[in-house]
Amino acid sequence: MATFQETFRNIFKIHELRQRILYTLALLVIVRIGAHVTLPGIDSHLLSSAMSNSTSDNLFGLYDLFVGGAFSNAALFALGIMPYISASIILQLAGAVVPYIQKLQREGEEGRKKITQWTRYGTVIISAFQAWGVTIHLLNMNYNGSPVVPEEIRGIGWTFSTIVFLVAGTVFIMWLGEQITDKGIGNGISLIIFIGIIDRFPYAILDEYRLLAAGQRNLVIEIVILAFMVLVIAGVVLVTQGTRRIPVQYAKRVVGRKVYGGVTQYIPLRVNTAGVMPIIFAQSIMFIPSTLFSFFPNNEFIASIAGYFNYESFTYSFIYAVMIVFFTYFYTAIAFNPQEVAENMKKQGGFIPGIRPGKQTAEFIDNILTKITLPGSIFLAIVAILPAFVSRFGVSGSFAQFFGGTSLLIIVGVALDTLQQIESHLLMRHYDGFMKSGKIRGRRF
User: Fold this and answer.
1) Is-contact 337 345, C-beta < 8 A?
2) For a tag site, which of 41, 59, 147, 371 has the least CB within 10 Å?
3) CATH architecture of the domain covering 1-199
4) Looking at the record's lineage, which domain of life comes first (predicted)?
């Protein structure tokens, strides 16, 4: 504990790191404020009453999770950063099939700038369409016969102004994310999603406390639940950081009077290369039946199909798990190209001991990646369906979502990435960081 306190004090001893952290916190506060500023013309009291009676087991609930409740508040930041994420995913997937985008991805800084520019344009287009859908959703919402959007302001003027506000909110959040990345600490886009999810944690703890206060939960059982949650988080951290290192040797080269190469490096293949994307893809598809049912509540056929996709049903969990395993392999194949890695190694004079450069190296890497992706995908599937099983044992729904699924994976991934960046700042100035203990070798010898 003393080491942790000393490390925390060291953070604020470094002027640049202190300024970056305070700058990041200030911008994240602005993001949370914008998530509670309701759009003009909407009755906030009727909106909260209508949203309290709606279910979260649909695409709207998933979307609201990523934007930190801004969607249910019909706030200026209701679309959040998700249109930017969608545009980024579309361009990333297009890079696997469109040769020109593949070329841009390999051009380094100039290609990255061009792709970033396209991503921004795509963000505006996607957010405009999504904002139009939000206006339709708000116009159809009512509580006990009273519309959320008053009749006197309905019309093309309100629709257009709402779309402009929502698109402007998304562009502003995108700018804030880029500012955090450039002048703050951590990845700005990821931190915005992170802070929106973690904002719900105090309310989840409060729900558990109410169960204890009402006598519906035994204190010993609550301690066991919390201990199990800690074990799950530890497992997610372990798998998130788990890698399979492949040794790579480089031949010696003599340039002038200097000798280059002759060292052994490693290719770190992550157990969970796909990250949280398989769960997002699978969850989006699994929520389609319940979302359709919300649009057609009186359709018996859609209602019967939606019954099989109930969040707590065995059918839902099984199909959900299978889809996660499939999307893990699918996204890993897109995100990591063994052929490209093998070609780069060959150009730089590197080779894997016992493996011929070129095609055999690519097949060797692909074989290892396929093997380590299987346990990673199964673990992702278990983590994804864990909240549904935990909720069956009396855990409140708001608290159960932190036992796994998208929420926990995003929280762990973003927290580890931010801690590693803080760690690098500390180590550069010869301070011990959060993630390692003991003396730095450079100071001991």
Assistant:
1) no
2) 371
3) Orthogonal Bundle (1.10)
4) Bacteria
